[in-house]
Amino acid sequence: MSLRRVLAASALLGAAALSSGCPPAQKSVQLNGQVSLTLIHTSDIHSRLFPYDFQIGTIDAQLGLGPADTVQRIGGAAKVSHIVGRERARSERVLHLDGGDCFQGAPVFNFFRGEAEVKALSMMGTDAMIPANHEFDLGPTNLVSQLERWATFPILAANYKLGDIRDPRDPGLGRVFTPWTSFNLGGLRVGVVGFGNLSTVSSLFDQPNSLGIVPLETVEVAQFYVDLIRPYVDVVVLVTHLGLETDQHMIAETSGIDVVLGGHNHIVLQPPKSIDDCQNVEPETGRHYISILTGDAQPSGAAPKHERRYCNPRRVILAHSGAFARYVGRLDLVLSNSAADVPPGYDPIDGFEVLQSDYKLIPVTEDVPEDPQIVELLEPYRVGLGALADLDLLVGYAPSAVSRSATSGGDSPLGNMVATAAWLRQGVQTDFAMTNTTGIRAEIPPGPITLETMYNVFPFDNSIAKMQLSGVEVQELFDFSARRSASRACTSQVQIAGARVVMNCDGCERLAVPCSVDDDCGFGGQCTPRENGEKRCRVPCAEHIYVGRDANRPCQRDQDCGPQALGACDTFKVDESGNGRCWTEIDSIASYELATSNYLASGGSGFSVLKRNTTQLDTKIQQRDALIDFIRSGRPCGWSASSGTSDGLVACGVDSDCPTGSACACVGHVTRGANGACTTDGSCEGAGRCVASACRDDLARFHERSCEGARSAASKQACIDTVNPCELGGEECKFVACVDQRVGNFTDGRLIMVGR
Amino acid sequence: MRSRALLPLACLALSACVVEGKLDKGTYRVEVALTMADGSPLPGEDDALCLDLRGAAPDPACRAPRAFKMDLVARDASGEVDTSFNGAVRVTVRPGTVIRVTGDAASGRNVKLTDGVASGQIVEVSGTFGPTRITVEDIGFVPQPATDADPACANGVDDDRDGLIDFPADPGCAYANDDSETTGTGIVGVSPTIWFAYPNISDVQGWGTATPFSGESVVVETRPERGANLIVTRLSSTGMFVSDLQKDAAGAWAPKPYGGLYVFNFAVPPGVRVCDRVTYLSGTMSEFFGYTELSFPSFSVHPWQTEVDGPCQVPEPRIIGNGDVKDAVLEPLEAGLVRVSGAHVGGKLGSKFPVETRWQPVDPNDPKDQNPCGRVANTSTDVKYAFSADATNCDFDGSGSIDFSKDLAEATCSCWCYQDPECTQYDTFRGRGTFRMVLGPTPNDTIQVNAGAVTGFSPVKLRGQTLPHIQGTLANFSGGNLNWTIEVRCGDDIVECPPEDAACLACVPGASCQASLPKPPNTQTACVKLRTSTDDDSDSN
Q: Which of A36, A272, A488 sits opposite B186 (nearest CB)?
């Protein structure tokens, strides 16, 4: 079936879906001159329906989320709803459009499968939404069920060709998706077209697939719908989940779009970009054009026919409004169709042109009031979560943040911990372990680490899978990782334990075969000329892979392990002589056991070498549980084998008995000082233990939060007196695991990125 | 044919589904008429405002306020004056900022219309460039009368009885001094275009340490007829570097002062090569720890072909010598190509931990003989670290970074490493690939170099040895002791001594052997990969 027939049929189906609920037609009004339009944009909320703790970085501080390097309680659907409602009230013509990925990322999704998210969006009056990759995480049937039951807005996906809903095998997406919709706002007709994600939806490009979706080409679909709806609307708005690069490419190759509200990358464009559309240029004449598909693919395999449509470039506004309910974007537009206002070359078919735009990014901070309706809506889910999973359960304490990124682009502290947790897990204990960097969804902020924190780090219920790989397959595995990493600013896309790898993003000599064009190199390599004029392939690869630490080979530098042994010497742990140990380079005919996530093991993120492995065993141990248990096995802050006590903590009577940065914790002698810090009062007479002061103070604040809901100041104080947070915090700090170097919070250069 | 028949059907079905609305009576829009403050007409694009100021002190970035006379008329749907409109409208400008609004109807940055009209108000704007428009909008703001009473949005009373009290709870309150809790109509009006000249790279660099456009979206002047010549000098894994060139006294292309700019693209810019001329460049300006950069860029380039366009115009790098490593000299060279010749790699760089010793003043009676790395509270002020060739690692806890806020031992160690000109802090090298080049005897006579883009280059192996030439783009990072870093583009940018040439390896700055060092890289070919008929970006990048 030709693309244009497909699109026309889709449009007709969409029309049928809309017409079933259409009011009687009224006489339309004609607007002329300057008018305003406000678009409120949210995207990638990722189930952050409840406020959460977040360490504010430099960029977020500049955007107004809070002071840098502090932990603030941000986000939440109730606050987002307040902002949306407030901004609606301040606008003449307004739409709230959501860019998808509202599913997955917090425990409420794990337990309630998206019901709360859709309900919240409905209650806050969302005008339209698009489906993104994570909406499919629990399958299309779950998505259809949640949307059919709870969505009060259209779900737009123009780039998905859907199956026949009469087919009992079809998941039924055709019942809930429609390609576009329109709104008449005080006489201004706004057409909204939605684009779901293509790049990250697993198996989307396999045909047939379990989703019942055939993905359609972005540029063709965008131009088709612009052409279709332009005569009937004044403004064309696209809401997409394609990512910034694809958004920009789509704008450049089309003509007639006014605004694109994008998502997927979790970025903020402040201010939004203004990009020219219609960017192809005819060299002979200098005229701008776009390519329009005019024919079907040829039976001979030749490309379908295109023709040039000449056009004048117009500025298109492209906005991205962040993620995780941290911000709400507000785009104010002034449009006009008056001859006095529009630019030269204006085509009346383009309706109203954007004269002026103003974008505000509204941070969802702690002091934003909550919409009481949303609070009430989510209360059963909050209570339910408390019953199903004690999210405030303490897992550990982090004296400093555990970062999931590294300035070197290689191994990160949190990546090392996650991989090590799987590697050493009882029942796993393989030769080495690997996980994907992007599967670690949040860093661990400083302070108490709760079960909720672990869900934020690992929202996916992925389990650990084991398998046997030959040395050749291990090489193939890390070569693929190197190629992926090279395409992302030479930042490692995997995190490992039990291995050391050197990835060369510039290209490896062993793959530098002669070539004439890029296709000769395969795997996305480039055929580039050398100084002597000879053309050779440049393909990123893993130049060195080491598995296993050799206790019998001391070293102080890589050269001690061999002449070409870059990365072989691990000097992070040294013996009494100051020597590290050499790691063993892999042998192509040896066999190695790998532990990884079942997501990667099934070929996720393109790891096809793992997908075809027939020795896989799913241990059913969740990565999250492995990390929790790994952290919990650690010692408390201040522990030392030479402390002279059975619990490893220095005995004390008063604070001055303890080293700098520590305080004496004991029952009955701890109070809250005027400055808010916990202080030891009187003497514990040697029965106390030295714990980290920051740990006691932070845990005290954490426990005090349980009294926040008190109805009056007196009852809050009574609650605090009962909980006694300083004493409770001090006692907990005696045993709660300290996430420091001893439990793996470090980088040791196990991943070296060359050519960064 | 059947597919074509489907399309009108689809359209018909779709148009019947559009929900219709109707216009309210009353004010429909505000017409904005604008002239220069003296009544003369607005300039066109060819005689844009501030064209004469570009590159000229004291206001090369055209930041000084410009005044315009503004007349406002509220019109109804039929285009007639709506005499019933007696509200205030908020005045804004994009791009740029409204500095003040003066006139008989002005109140702050608001103008009150009477019987639908407000004439002769003066609007002063600043920080504008390119096509600029003044916008007015009825946001419901009512200026507070000159009385002692609190304005309605700060009086603790739910004046409009909507259940919400005052600013910011009541959305009808534009600001705390708004004397009405009622929401505005939202009607708008936009002025005709006011043409300002686009800023050059030197203007967005601010002719100094910080961009005056921080956080703002800018369009950079790229047109040769306006005196701009932006050439790509480097591609990196996160963006590109461009230099705005002019002819020097000898007729060669040379960068203008403050004429370099780092364009941060998060990835290698597609379809761009060194030597290409940039024909359009816009993005958001920001300061990243002292480094001026243009992020989220939109750009287009003219692909350079020497057969048609002539020799590549990448300019000769500026030489950095001893005494030049200071802000006054290097700030105008930021993001441009620079070269250091005849200096040596710092002799101390290794993963072992340095030895902690006691610091003591040489002359206890000299008040100036202070511990350069002492701290005020909570640490001892008599600690010192001694570094050796393979012991410069200050990351004592192995966290992967030096914690300057909490771990004072690491911070003190890092400070002492800086005091030793030969010392490169190992964690900095491991994390960022940077090392120190020594130009003279003091810590300030050193400059950082990042050669991470060059596979196989090892400053550890070259400790203490002379490098005849090393060049690259100049970056600024104010987060540490060594702010300036030369970022090598590719292997062509480094000229090493022949391994057997002991005289070269040991040659110090100022010695006669400097004259016989190997020649510097050829600027026309170093890191330049021109397009050919079989390698033209059509299938790559």
A: A36
